[in-house]
Automatic annotation (TrEMBL):
One of its GO terms (molecular function) is nucleic acid binding. InterPro entries: Retrovirus_Pol_polyprotein (IPR050951), RNaseH_sf (IPR036397). This is Integrase catalytic domain-containing protein. It comes from the Eukaryota. Transmembrane segments: none annotated. It comes from Entomortierella parvispora.
Length: 128
């Protein structure tokens, strides 16, 4: 998100963080169906344009608010579980289990493997 607002020199990113935080917390999450701000507080943030409209005078009771908040959190958890199940289904769509036997030849990606002979040599120029 920050990339869309930073200037060409990338020097003003720190000044944009408060606006970015507000935009992120007010955006509806695709997995939960709710904004992070709403899930934390049970209400939507007041935008500057909303200050022109008189506030709603009906304030829910504490019990009604807590009940609605609990229901919202359960719905969000259910939505997250459905999203996770869908992601798992998509990830496993073409995956297959490999059955290896002792003696089978396999390919090894050694980018993160350290070979003992390489690790005890004192200089890179002396490595094979």
């Amino acid at each position: 998100m920050l990339r869309a607002f930073v200037d060409n020199k990338q020097s003003n990113w720190d000044q944009l963080l408060p606006s970015l935080e507000f935009a992120y917390n007010n955006a509806v999450n695709a997995s939960t169906g709710y904004s992070p701000f709403f899930l934390n507080t049970g209400q939507h943030p007041r935008l500057p344009s909303a200050l022109l409209i008189p506030p709603n005078s009906s304030v829910p009771t504490v019990d009604a608010f807590l009940s609605e908040q609990a229901t919202t959190l359960i719905l969000a958890q259910d939505a997250l579980q459905r999203a996770q199940d869908h992601q798992e289904e998509q990830a496993n769509k073409r995956r297959r289990d490999h059955k290896f036997k002792v003696g089978d030849q396999v390919l090894l990606r050694a980018t993160n493997a350290t070979i003992l002979a390489d690790s005890i040599r004192p200089a890179d120029k002396l490595r094979p």
